[in-house]
Amino acid sequence: xxxxxxxxxxxxxxxxxxxxxxxxxxxxxxxxxxxxxxxxxxxxxxxxxxxxxxxxxxxxxxxxxxxxxxxxxxxxxxxxxxxxxxxxxxxxxxxxxxxxxxxxxxxxxxxxxxxxxxxxxxxxxxxxxxxxxxxxxxxxxxxxxxxxxxxxxxxxxxxxxxxxxxxxxxxxxxxxxxxxxxxxxxxxxxxxxxxxxxxxxxxxxxxxxxxxxxxxxxxxxxxxxxxxxxxxxxxxxxxxxxxxxxxxxxxxxxxxxxxxxxxxxxxxxxxxxxxxxxxxxxxxxxxxxxxxxxxxxxxxxxxxxxxxxxxxxxxxxxxxxxxxxx
Amino acid sequence: xxxxxxxxxxxxxxxxxxxxxxxxxxxxxxxxxxxxxxxxxxxxxxxxxxxxxxxxxxxxxxxxxxxxxxxxxxxxxxxxxxxxxxxxxxxxxxxxxxxxxxxxxxxxxxxxxxxxxxxxxxxxxxxxxxxxxxxxxxxxxxxxxxxxxxxxxxxxxxxxxxxxxxxxxxxxxxxxxxxxxxxxxxxxxxxxxxxxxxxxxxxxxxxxxxxxxxxxxxxxxxxxxxxxxxxxxxxxxxxxxxxxxxxxxxxxxxxxxxxxxxxxxxxxxxxxxxxxxxxxxxxxxxxxxxxxxxxxxxxxxxxxxxxxxxxxxxxxxxxxxxxxxxxxxx
Lengths: 326, 330
Prior knowledge:
- The complex is a heterodimer.
- Chain A is of the alpha/beta class.
- Chain A has helices spanning 5-23, 26-30, 46-52, 68-73, 78-85, 120-133, 151-163, 211-226, 261-269, 272-282, 288-310; strands spanning 60-63, 109-112, 139-144, 167-173, 176-177, 180-181, 202-207, 232-237, 250-251, 254-255.
- Chain A is globular.
- Chain B is an alpha/beta fold.
- In chain B, the strands form three sheets. In chain B, strands 2, 3, 4, 5, 6, 7, 8 and 13 form an eight-stranded mixed beta sheet that branches. Chain B has a five-stranded mixed beta sheet with strand order 10-12-11-14-15, sandwiched between helices.
- The longest helix of chain B is centred in the C-terminal third of the chain and has 16 residues, at 214-229.
- At the A-B interface, helix 6 and helix 7 of A face helix 4 and helix 5 of B.
């Protein structure tokens, strides 16, 4: 095994942090204590965790409506995430954005937005800024398979290729655009990475539930980008274990998750956390007690994050118009 | 040393503002379709590529959405981009990055990241260009919280306002009208700023208040001059920036004259003229001696044929007619 214990433990812990805090939102959502729409990424943690392992604080990330993992993996504070979801003044977006607008500029997480494909060109611009400043910052654009239907992606790939911009287009292909299976929106389910070909952009299709594969390929891609060779397109095959929005798409009493049970079960077996755990145990990096210790530490952190949020104030009505203009 | 009586055309004042700001601030760059083509941007970008290189003066493929988005993203990453669209009509592809992203970014991220961006659509009407090369959409942008909208009408103003726009930490839509490009005025050599939200009284008068901006301010000045010869003293105010709006300068004038005409180059329904009329009706109601008149385009797409264009576009004659109507109101 070419990895050391601390590195693998770090990847494992980060995935567990994302999973544990996300799962802790489920009951409050069902109890209607969390009001803002929350898009859980349970099952998709390996992608941002594997990628962020090769990024520095100065590298840029733009996310989507499903960005809890992008935010935490880039170094975002968990307490500020929970507080944001509860609409608190101490949230990462001061309670003005909610779950779909997570930001942490000090760590290079420059923002997230739910307009499908809407942040791709923003990441393109961050890459352009890096090229003009000649400081080798790499820009990561996260988007889902649904965004491959947007013209902004094609426009952005062309411009990135033309100018050799340091951007990585990261498609988290979880097979569904909200309710719609990919077979209903694309002619061929296997060709997302091929979108990069006519733009002469280097591309990969990677098992997005294998954090080590994600790490290895994205490390290569990030170095390629950083050295000024131009953009890279990466498609990660993954699956969300929860609904499009909320725990199971149970909206107003109607179960709207139309995905087949067998398909969901099949992907639950490919859970990225369980897979890494297996590697850790089989290679004797960790024993069960040590694994449990990681989980305990994370549970404590999540508990603290909720306490931080509970003890935080809501924004004051007098501040409604604050932040319209700087 | 500044030469304050130097004459410069409006378009060269734009050029000078960009050039001087690029010289003093390395984070300023220009991006957009046709920055190296006078056919697209007149002489506003002349010499920029030669001085600053293609990395900071970027002519782009026809991809309005992504290019505008890239300017927004670069601004979020700390640059000060100027994104140009040679026709405002083409920029409609970019409403997502402008409205959903740039305008909202600072608010929806709780002030954690701002968007110091100049969005520069060029309005280029007439010449039988028909409906998709002719629209004046400032009223649409003024509707959006988070955007500022400037609409200068003179060479002096455009330089000062554009410099303010580049320095502003927010997204600013710079409404630029090709019909003004040849206008000349005194333009100081040095860098100077004109603050947003400060209109200017171009002509003092007691009979009626006339409010305008952008190209229509040129027509408004003509109307003011003509009416002076006919014994009507117009107080003509060029508001210069639509958002923020200098309400006080308008209200104070209406309190004096009791009469108001607004000349706005956009369509009648939902025009910015309607907003000004609403403000005055609410805040200076008791001073009004006549109904407020608006001179706007009719609610019709721009036609191609010159014969129809003559009836469609508004000018000083329409303003004079409206002023006479209000002044003679009984």
